[in-house]
TrEMBL record:
One of its GO terms (molecular function) is hydrolase activity. Pfam families: Sortase. This is Sortase family protein. InterPro entries: Sortase, Sortase_C, Sortase_dom-sf. The lineage of its organism: Bacteria, Bacillati, Bacillota, Clostridia, Lachnospirales. The chain crosses the membrane at residues 7-26, 245-267. The keyword Hydrolase applies.
């Protein structure tokens, strides 16, 4: 009886260990699947909008950006400013402004209003007080994302980017291309490099660093350049490259094998006991 119980316990421990080992891969897959679906739903919603609706939405965002230039307290908005901010660039009512693609690290992620934890667990957050991601002179958009989450990749590979690499913002039916010209590491409370610069069209990607320690902030800044054909053509999500059935089979097979072994050992033990 003791041997029988020991076999079952060993099987349970093994299954638990395997589950913990597979969790990051499976979780990242499902999050990537969610991100892919969010981008697809957003794109369909934009296609349904007429040109006038799109123009009005972009014009409202540009007008909002102009008010930020002289707003010294833009990073500490009032309740009224919060309400206005949430209403802008919200095509499908989910708070999704658009999405970002980073060809060099094969990254495609939805961009949402704000940087609440619920947002940063599944996508990229736009820092309120920075310019909305519609471009234009005298704008500086700041987008924040997590690194090293066991459940999602997000901005984990942001430190692999170099000066001269590009990233693209897809906002409504507008595509904005930015070329990286500055990579910096700053303290969490240092907002100096996030300021709006006169006449410049900038966008900064922000994440925590060093990896796993997160005591500082990595800032990857780009300036707007002309769009180039095919720049993000090689960007596909991990989930789009692997079917759900394939993932299910890869998980199910080792679990079934282990379960079979545990049952087989239990049956053999029972037979030996009966013979005795």
């Amino acid at each position: 009886m003791r041997k029988h119980i020991s076999t079952i316990i060993a099987g349970i421990i093994f299954l638990t260990g395997l589950s913990l080992l597979l969790y990051p891969t499976i979780s990242n897959f499902w999050n990537s699947k969610h991100q892919t679906q969010a981008v697809a739903d957003y794109s369909k919603q934009i296609e349904k909008m007429d040109d006038q609706e799109k123009e009005q939405a972009l014009a409202a965002a540009e007008k909002y950006n102009q008010t930020l230039i002289t707003n010294g307290g833009r990073f500490t908005p009032t309740e009224e400013e919060d309400t206005l901010y949430d209403s802008l660039l919200d095509a499908n009512g989910t708070g999704m402004m658009g999405y970002i693609t980073i060809p060099e690290i094969r990254c495609k992620l939805p961009i949402y209003h704000g940087v609440e934890d619920s947002v940063l667990q599944v996508g990229i957050g736009h820092i309120e007080g920075s310019s909305l991601p519609v471009g234009g002179r005298g704008t500086h958009c700041v987008l924040s994302g997590h690194r090293g989450l066991p459940s999602a990749k997000l901005f984990t590979d942001l430190d692999k980017l170099e000066k001269g690499d590009i990233f693209l913002l897809h906002i409504y039916d507008k595509v904005l291309t930015y070329e990286i010209d500055q990579i910096s590491i700053v303290e969490p409370e240092d907002y100096g490099l996030l300021e709006i610069e006169d006449g410049k069209d900038l966008c900064t990607l922000l994440t925590c660093t060093p990896y796993g320690i997160n005591t500082q902030r990595l800032l990857v800044r780009g300036h707007r350049i002309e769009n180039r054909s095919g720049d993000d053509s090689r960007v596909t999500s991990d989930a789009a490259e692997v079917s759900s059935l394939t993932v299910a089979v890869c998980v199910a097979i080792p679990l079934l094998i282990i379960s079979f072994l545990v049952v087989d050992l239990s049956i053999r033990h029972s037979r030996k006991k009966q013979k005795k």
